[in-house]
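Morning F.,

Quick status update on the modeling queue. The single chain you submitted on Monday has been processed. Sequence for confirmation:
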Amino acid sequence: MYVTNEIAINYGGAQLRLEFTGNGTASLYINNIERETTSSENAIGILKLNTTVQTEYEWHEFIEGIVEYKPEEIIASLWASKSILEQLVIKRRGGNEFKYRHSND
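Structure tokens below.
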């Protein structure tokens, strides 16, 4: 059984959330509405999810969630208009997960 991990932030008045599991499933939510879900049967690879969202002052931003599955770690990140907003790195060691978070505040 795999734990669901997430990155959740407020960006320009919109609630962004990227949910992902250790077995290759990811979903992108904007204001608690699921915009895209994808999965892969491969243990190693990259999942990309994207959508546009209207932020404050009626700007339209391209939002992207990327989850990269590697043998030793999972790297998940949220992007807005090609700028990283937040990143979460989960180290895989002997069935245990160790989380490291990077925020672009």
